Amino acid sequence: MNAMIPCASLDEVRTHIDRLDRELVRLIAERGACVHQAAGFKRSAAEVPAPQRVAQVLARVDALAVELGADRRVVAATWQAMIAAFIAAEQAAHAALHPPAPPSP
Predict the structure, then answer these.
(1) I want to staple 39 with a disulfide (CB 3.0 to 4.6 A). Which of 76, 79, 93, 96 is the partner?
(2) CATH superfamily of 10-97
(3) Alpha helix stretches (DSSP H) within the chain
(4) SS3 42
(5) What pTM value is reported for the model?
């Protein structure tokens, strides 16, 4: 189900790509806000990577790639990179939200 928009020129193709990039960045920002919220619900830094959840997400987006006619390799590589970056961001958010207790005197 590719919603291919016929273009008459390379400039027109690039205009569509720029529009899509803007929407993708907006969605990444929204996803980032969700990830930041998730950090608050996790009691320990060890809960942040959540490998079972990563496997679920990767399987789900692979199925979506098939359903929507996307290149499965591109989707997998994109989500793997995005998830790795969001895990790092969530680790930083978790550390900021849950600083270690100061040592007792």
Answers:
(1) 93
(2) Chorismate mutase (1.20.59.10)
(3) 10-41, 51-68, 72-97
(4) coil
(5) 0.86
